[in-house]
Amino acid sequence: MSASEAISRPLESKRLEGSxxxxxxxxxxxxxxxxxIARVRSWxxxxxxxxxxxxxxxxxxxxxxxxxxxxxxxxxxxxxCPDGMPLVWYGRRRAAAPxxxxxxxxxxxxxxxxxxxxxxxxxxxxxxxxxxxxAAAELQRIHPGVQIAGTFSPPFRALSADEKDEIxxxxxxxxxxxxxxxxxxxxxxxxxxxFRSRLDAPVLLAVGLALDIAAGAKGRxxxxxxxxxxxxxxxxCQEPRRLWRRYLVYNSIFLYHVLAEMLEAGSxxxxxx
Length: 273
Prior knowledge:
Blueprint: H1 3-8, H2 13-16, E1 20-23, E2 26-29, H3 33-45, E3 51-56, H4 58-66, H5 68-76, E4 79-82, H6 85-94, H7 104-114, E5 121-126, H8 131-142, E6 147-152, H9 161-174, E7 178-182, H10 187-195, E8 203-206, H11 210-215, H12 223-227, H13 231-238, H14 240-267
Parallel strand pairs: 3-4, 3-8, 5-6, 5-7, 7-8
Antiparallel strand pairs: 1-2
Helix pairs in contact: 4-5, 4-14, 13-14
């Protein structure tokens, strides 16, 4: 869905606000792009602090299977949007609401367009050297009113306690309303969970490749492939050595556990969520 469609489409925020469906122990928002934007906007308007958003994928849910701590983290998250068409298809069967895909690369530009009247300050954290700056420049070119509070590309290693303290001070000094975190799963989700209490920003979002795509460093699958749930195949063809395990192995693990969960629910041994 384009940014303009997200703005012009009638909002269903009242119907979808707080509505979730459970998948492999993770609460996933039964939402769509426009309603997710409206929910984040309302947090900022209400003066909230430390709200967190993820865009849940098959990879993320399998990380939860492998590490129960990840499930607990996602349970603490304020909104786990349904990224990945398998989650959308499952949600449409389980939730009494219109579930649509909401992914970081769509959410970032659509949110900037939909909140242009709010004069929000955005902070971009993550990406390789120069990516955050390029993403900021491109978004400002498309949406001239977008205010960039700051950017930072962290080193590809664990941060020391002193470095974490300095990062928190730097971001707070920039006074952003929204912090966009692009570190890859599960690193970015762990980051926003750790920093949510240290930052004054109303909202922190773990957006994956959104900054790379906004900067033009990464491409997206054609729309027909995305609608069929095959964006993973497009990315696998682009980076087979790096991604083969994530998509082929993780997708198989996900399918096995989802089928087992559905069979167990259907047998009556587990009450439907």
